[in-house]
Please model this.
Amino acid sequence: MKKKIAIATLGLLVAAGSAYGSGYRIPEQSLNSTARAGANVAYTPSADAAFFNPANMSWLDNATIFEANATYIDLKDIEYRDNRTPAFNGTADVESFFVPTFFIVSKDYSGMRIGLSLDAPAGL
Model:
């Protein structure tokens, strides 16, 4: 029984890694990350600290903070031809995506905060 569980777990880990590796990266997870060109990991003065650096939640004001953002991504159709080898040639169809993000950080409860982030950092 233990061997079956180990094999199933290994199979799921391999499948999850290959599924994650096939998407786009979306670094614009909040208004702060867009304004700071992604350099806000060390200093996140809002609820997006729950995603970028949870340790920064301790420096926030003593209040419940909520942040919601929406990103619309409109990809045009392209045809790419590589000069090195045809193996690198490719095409992409027109695609549009709506990517919502939500962040919430609780107020301070005896030196402890709870943070939650719902986002899609990659994988369109």
